[in-house]
Amino acid sequence: MFFNKKKGPETPQVRAVYYIGLPGFNQNFACDLIKENDLLIIRQVKPQAQASMSLSQVQSIDVIPENDFLTRYQHTNAAAPKDRSGFWKMYMVINYMGSDGKQKMIAFWVSNLEISKLNKFVAAVQENSPVQNLVL
After folding, report:
1. Are 35 and 125 in contact (CB under 8 A)?
2. Do 38 and 54 touch, CB atoms closer than 8 A?
3. CB-based contacts of 40: which residues, under 8 Å, 6+ apart?
4. Which residues contact residue 119 at a Cβ distance below 8 angstroms, ignoring those fewer than 6 apart?
5. Could you say which of 30, 52, 69, 77 is the most buried, measured as most Cβ atoms within 10 Å of its Cβ?
6. Could you tell me if 63 and 119 are in contact, meaning their C-beta atoms sit under 8 angstroms apart?
7. pLDDT bracket for residue 2 (50, 70, 90)
8. Separation CA 78–CA 55 (nearest Å)
9. Which of 92, 90, 35 shows the shortest CA–CA distance to 62?
10. What pLDDT, on a 0 to 100 scale, did the predictor assign at position 128?
């Protein structure tokens, strides 16, 4: 009886660790990423900070392993540290058009235990994005 209460639609969100791309945010601090209507809201947990952007500014979202992130975005060939505990990182890179008209990026990482939540969030953010038509 009490357990069958229907909830409204859940707001797509995920907790990730901020890495690079937002001035005023602390590197390697937890952030909540929330899709609210046509906005992407990024809230740093402690100390509190917030940034938001329209989903129309998002050009692409890449979810890639740490080695690929280091090579593609940090221009290093360093191998990711081997961790025998089974812990590894996946990076989510949001490529977007800034309010100044310049292409920018924000990067976050999650542990392998949070990958499915991250993939669901990315799918929710991309579900209404326009189809890109590339002319070759």
Report:
1. yes
2. yes
3. 33, 34, 52, 53, 54, 55, 58, 94, 125
4. 63
5. 69
6. yes
7. low
8. 33
9. 92
10. 67
CB neighbourhood size of 40 (10 A): 22
Written as one string, the DSSP assignment of the chain is --TTPPP-PPPPEEEEEEEES-TTPPTT-EEEEEEETTEEEEEETTTTEEEEEEGGGEEEEEEEEHHHHHHHHS---PPPPP-TTS--EEEEEEEEE-TTS-EEEEEEEEEGGGHHHHHHHHHHHHTTPPPP----
The CA angle 30-35-40, to the nearest 5 degrees, is 75
Distances 81 to 21, 87, 132 between C-alpha atoms, Å: 23, 10, 36
Phi-psi region of 37 (alpha: psi -120 to 50; beta: other; left: phi over 0): left
Both structure tokens of 131: 């189809």
